């Protein structure tokens, strides 16, 4: 057995400047055995002492901080001299020149066509949530087109304009009530009320104007039932749903009712609400919103939590996934009801089943993964839980995008398979065969 001792020496101090020096002896033992060399290290503590004093360390930090401030500071004063060690080119600007340039720019923007659009048209258009409004209008138009009763162009135009204005009114109320919460979320912090382009009072006045105009258009251009549904949707979304978002998870179910009313409006424009086909369409839009919204909210659950919105995605993640899957299965009987009540033909069951299965599959994957993630076995293992949560995020994202395509696909297929849609083609062939015989 041989022993090698390593201690503090001048050679070590010279070769390692401004680092640490050993204050104790360390012993390393080399033990040779028949099986081969074996090394055993002495486990006695080894202390390292800095050779830089506390005063020198503080002085060095202050010098570094001063250099950083001088190198990265900016100034508008031309009289100041720039430090020599600035790592980039700096162009000094006179403050008076800057004020004049900004005043000219503001004057041009306020009078030009582009300026008017930027300061007036775009903010109020954003208050309407145009993408959501288009989706609401399309659901009402599709329901109107599926009605078995005759339709007119005047009713269709009034339904389209009135529904759009009612939706814009509800959305404007929603934005006017929530700027302090919307600014805490990435997806809503660019809204016009949050940015100060429109004040809450201006949003309310805009909502009142377009709301009254929209309900009046539905009343005089369609009928009183549709107008009442449009007014109720403004109240339900702008007041009830928006107020519940910070109180209870039941807000999601209230919000789903908002989506179910536009199909009823389209159906009531030409058909009585006693016909069960309209309620199948309303139920379909109601159920669709759960796999759509629950998967969307899952991936931004922390934003909802930080903003103060009480959502199922963070209050009860297992329930959030389970509800998404449960309502995706409800699509099958609702589509069956459209054929059963003679709104569509029976071939619609084949097409719609394929699309419904597509969404139900990803909703199932999302639910099953969340079910495993929040089991006792997985939650006890942090590594497995994080891996499972990453998978759930992927499944939720895929289910969301499938739902975006699912809704227009099912509605368009329903219009193509409307009862009697292709009778003219088959009747013409039958008449031709009779003449030939």
UniProtKB/TrEMBL annotation:
It is an enzyme of class 2 (transferase). One of its GO terms (biological process) is heme A biosynthetic process. Keywords: Heme biosynthesis, Membrane, Mitochondrion, Transferase, Transit peptide, Transmembrane, Transmembrane helix. InterPro entries: Protohaem_IX_farnesylTrfase (IPR006369), Protohaem_IX_farnesylTrfase_mt (IPR016315), UbiA_prenyltransferase (IPR000537), UbiA_prenylTrfase_CS (IPR030470), UbiA_sf (IPR044878). Its EC number is 2.5.1.-. One of its GO terms (cellular component) is mitochondrial membrane. It is a multi-pass membrane protein. The keyword Transmembrane applies. CDD domains: PT_UbiA_Cox10. GO terms for molecular function: protoheme IX farnesyltransferase activity. Converts protoheme IX and farnesyl diphosphate to heme O. This is Protoheme IX farnesyltransferase, mitochondrial.
